[in-house]
Amino acid sequence: MPKILIIEDEAAIRRVLKKIISEENETYEVEEAEDGLKGIEMISKSDFDLVLCDIKMPKMDGVEVLEKVKSLKPEIPIVMISGHGDLDTAVNTMRLGAFDYISKPPDLNRLLNTVRNALDRKELVVENKLLKKKVSKKYDMIGESEGITHIKNMIEKVAPTDARVLITGPNGTGKELVAHWLHEKSDRTKAPMVEVNCAAIPSELIESELFGHVKGSFTGANKDRAGKFEAANGGTIFLDEIGDMSLSAQAKVLRALQENKISRVGSDKDIKVNVRVIAATNKDLQKEIAEGKFREDLYHRLAVILINVPALNNRREDIPLLIQFFAEQIAQEHGTTAKTFSASAIKLLQEYDWTGNIRELRNVVERLIILGEKEVSELDVKLFASK
Ligand SMILES: Nc1ncnc2c1ncn2[C@@H]1O[C@H](COP(=O)(O)OP(=O)(O)OP(=O)(O)O)[C@@H](O)[C@H]1O
């Protein structure tokens, strides 16, 4: 639902603009501000997809508003509204980053065309940002062991469905990587995957973090805020370390999963959300259930599909490939050429006890690249790989 803000000191013009825009498309949500200061306050508190802003206003003029919004939220397109005397300024604002300008009194067709174009551009900018983020991260999943091949097959099958997935396995085995690919290979890939590390958020804050809150609902809640479920709308929410979530938060998550709706802390208004849930844990949830620390009903809601990522010690045949992959990745990060590892160095690393899993292997490879010889030898491994 595109949100549009009109900043205009003349109430009559505000009213006309609002009427034209909201009648054009009932999904447009139009809000008003009677001066620049109020407008900036609203923009910093809430997300708008488009701002229409008058040039001549008391307190803060349109050019100042434009500059402020550009530094605050550069992705929001701004259309300036110019009166008789300030057409030149309007043209100049385009150089300062305004999307376009319209003249008073507003011409219906020109206004609506500009609004549509500006909203389209906003969507493109946001999509582009997401794409850039995706390619800048390296998400290759390396390995040819039975364990990894099975996981890759599961991802291909499960990703395009909306089924909830519970990913289990020890720390550093690649659970987050699996979640990433489940999202990436789904139809939700254009929308965000929002990650929540349930273990890192204090239990009294988790509810507001997940579901948002309204102003005044608790000390410190000085403005309305959307939670992660709303942020992930249309996409995926990844609840990492779900085994560490408090029982009261588990109850709230259960409701969100059962009813596909949430309500912000302090509000009784239901908000419908369309979010796919993927969860991960390194805990044995059956044991947690038996001890009364995890809700069984939530477990069954989450674990429609179970993916267990095996420990590195149980797929040692992947170690040579992983070493080579990390050597190249690290060289790229350091801006150097990749070092090679001698066969005996690789063999020795393959026999290590990798309780810290892939994360630990990567750290060791990085250390060996920094400290070892041009070709990392068995001796280098003996000298530098110790934990
Ligand atoms: N099969 C793989 N191929 C290449 N890199 C991998 C693979 N599995 C994991 N990694 C890398 O190892 C690191 C740890 O993986 P990840 O964060 O996904 O593990 P995790 O199981 O989610 O860990 P934790 O439980 O501690 O959150 C990441 O840098 C990830 O990119």
TrEMBL record:
- Indicate whether Nucleotide-binding appears among the record's keywords: yes
Q: Name one Pfam family in it.
A: Sigma54_activat
Q: Which residues form the Response regulatory domain?
A: 3-119
In this UniProt entry, the residues modified to 4-aspartylphosphate are D54
- Name the residues that span the membrane: none
Ranges for the Sigma-54 factor interaction domain? Answer: 141-370
- Cross-referenced InterPro entries, in alphabetical order? AAA+_ATPase, AAA_lid_NorR, CheY-like_superfamily, P-loop_NTPase, Sig_transdc_resp-reg_receiver, Sigma_54_int, Sigma_54_int_dom_ATP-bd_2
Gene3D superfamilies documented for this protein: 1.10.8.60, 3.40.50.2300, P-loop containing nucleotide triphosphate hydrolases
Task: List UniProt keywords, sorted A-Z.
Answer: ATP-binding, Nucleotide-binding, Phosphoprotein
Q: What is this protein called?
A: Sigma-54-dependent transcriptional regulator
Q: What is the lineage of its organism?
A: Bacteria, Pseudomonadati, Bacteroidota, Flavobacteriia, Flavobacteriales
